[in-house]
Amino acid sequence: MDFWQIFNSAFLGVIEGFTEFIPVSSTGHLILAGHFLNFHSPNNTFQVLIQLGPILAILSVYFGRLLHIVKTLPASRESQHFTIGVLVAFLPAAVIGVLAHKTIKTVLMESPMTVCISLIIGGIVLLWVDRLPLKPRYHNVMRYPWWLCVCIGFFQCLAMIPGVSRSGATIVGALLLGADKRSAAEFSFFLAMPTMVGAFAYDLMKNYSDLQWNDTMSIVIGFVVAFIAGVFVVRHLLDYISRHGYALFGWWRLIAGGFGLVALMIWG
């Protein structure tokens, strides 16, 4: 690997780690950055596989809480309820992701223009939702009703369009259905675990034979950097959202999508 390959892999890892859990679309940012850096990965595998870094970041930050859920699962109705809720929320994306995998990887993820438009539309939606006079009814992710979990799971499927944002879709869906801002973000964290681990495993199974040495090293570098950045975000995001809401991320999306469109028109 030369210097620029290492730099690009690390830079994209920073983008992934800082954007995976905020509602701005990490995949969309990776696609746009990779396009303008002329960074290529077989079947866009890099963009999917480095997501394991942020997942391990969640596990490291929430390890104690997850361990408690596992230990109490046989006897605690609350732990059982929460676990089933996350699994039923995961199912829609699992089914649609498998059925539409080829279209997502070869069509949607090859279109920077789609990413820019999705970023802008999502930014408008996020600003609109953040200003709605919503009255939250659900504040504890451990007690979300199962119907709410299923609905959030279907919202998550919108994120198969690059630029929509997995966390953005699930958070907006949860807010509209009665969750408060902090618990909506927290449920999005937990739902990310089976979703992204499943995407990682399925994509690796489909594409491991196409990976060369340089591709593998790029993924390793991106994964490590994304993990470090992801730990920082997970530790600080919930407190920020509780105090300030999601408006910053809506403006972020509008600016990123707008600059992306301008850059595409100028440089192609």
UniProtKB/TrEMBL annotation:
GO terms for cellular component: plasma membrane. Its EC number is 3.6.1.27. The keyword tRNA processing does not apply. Keywords: Antibiotic resistance, Cell membrane, Cell shape, Cell wall biogenesis/degradation, Hydrolase, Membrane, Peptidoglycan synthesis, Transmembrane, Transmembrane helix. It catalyses: di-trans,octa-cis-undecaprenyl diphosphate + H2O = di-trans,octa-cis-undecaprenyl phosphate + phosphate + H(+). The chain crosses the membrane at residues 48-70, 82-100, 112-132, 144-164, 184-205, 217-238, 250-267. PANTHER family: UNDECAPRENYL-DIPHOSPHATASE (PTHR30622:SF3). Catalyzes the dephosphorylation of undecaprenyl diphosphate (UPP). Confers resistance to bacitracin. Bacitracin is thought to be involved in the inhibition of peptidoglycan synthesis by sequestering undecaprenyl diphosphate, thereby reducing the pool of lipid carrier available. Belongs to the UppP family. NCBIfam families: PRK00281.1-2, PRK00281.1-4, undec_PP_bacA. This is Undecaprenyl-diphosphatase. It comes from Candidatus Tokpelaia hoelldobleri. The lineage of its organism: Bacteria, Pseudomonadati, Pseudomonadota, Alphaproteobacteria, Hyphomicrobiales. The gene is uppP.
